[in-house]
User: Fold this.
Amino acid sequence: MPSIFSRIISRDIPGYIVAEDDNYLAFLDINPLAEGHTLVIPKLEVDYIFDLEDEVLAGLHVFAKKVARGIEKVVPCERIGVTVIGLEVPHAHVHLIPINGVHDMDFSQMKLSFSNEEFAEIAKKIKAAIEEG
Ligand code: AMP
Assistant:
């Protein structure tokens, strides 16, 4: 059974995709802590991030850097926080979260909700910012 994230990669289910290359994909988290909260995944389905081969792990972070640069152009924030949890979806992923303080990284706080149109709009802006470089 492919993970929910592999199903986004294969377009079996929709995702608000902001960046993609041969090995990695970035898309908006649907239960975001902040506008622009993005997940970055390797296309290779491995549950635990530290089970990734060194090269794949390094490439994931380099890809995440490019995505973070795009998010920070679109969402006003102090910086982009990076975290790995992985307790819910067994497909390695990095969370990129626009933050202004340490409390903004608190996963126990209420998540934000956006309409499909709002998610699509923010994804479009971040995608454009990433492509601009
Ligand atoms: P964790 O595995 O604990 O890092 O949490 C998984 C994250 O994936 C949570 O923040 C969820 O909101 C997010 N998530 C779960 N399903 C989807 C989906 N279909 N599209 C985007 N984000 C998702």
